[in-house]
Amino acid sequence: MNRDEYLRTLEAVEEETAKLLSDRSRIDLRLMQLKTTAESLRALLGIEGLDVKIDSIIGALGITDAIREVLASSKIPMSPSVIKSELVNRGVELAEYANPAAVIHNTLTRLEKQGEVVRVQNPAGQTVAYSLVKNVARRRALGGFEA
User: How much is the pTM?
Assistant: First the structure.
């Protein structure tokens, strides 16, 4: 293969990766919406307990995917402490981490470097919140992702 063929292959790989990330975000968000709907319906029907099947699927998300889902479901940027609270509210088990706050901060930093989230800062330059980049494919096309 020559350089042009490698470049075309690289471009195709990056495009497919962006599409898959977008698909994963869309699917994970829909799973969270369905879980919320199921919980509401159970409450209306007076059915106690949680649906083990739905919760096990959501609980199986890794911390990175869980953080993506929390951010994807929010219309406003979220601080790391609010993200942590929302993870707990959604049943994400943080007890397995010695320092959950550090894990969340490190994950947000990594997602920012990958172009999946943006940091919101106050005028003093302090980070106050994070927001999910909604169109990952567009962000990649604009060069927002690092290699």
Answer: 0.56
Domain ranges within the chain, ordered by starting residue:
3-141
pLDDT single digits (tens) 85-102: 999 888 788 888 899 999
Q: Which two tokens stand for residue 1?
A: 């293969």
pLDDT band at 142 (very low <50, low <70, confident <90, very high): very low
Q: Within its chain, how far is the Cα of 56 from the centroid? A: 18
Q: Which residue has the tokens 């999910």?
A: 132
Closest CA to 111 of 21, 12, 29, 47: 21
In DSSP notation, 63-75 reads HHHHHHHHHHT-S
**3-141: what fold?**
Arc Repressor Mutant, subunit A (1.10.10)
Report the distance separating Cα 25 and Cα 80, nearest Å: 19
Going by C-alpha positions, the residue among 98, 73, 126 that lies closest to residue 83 is 73
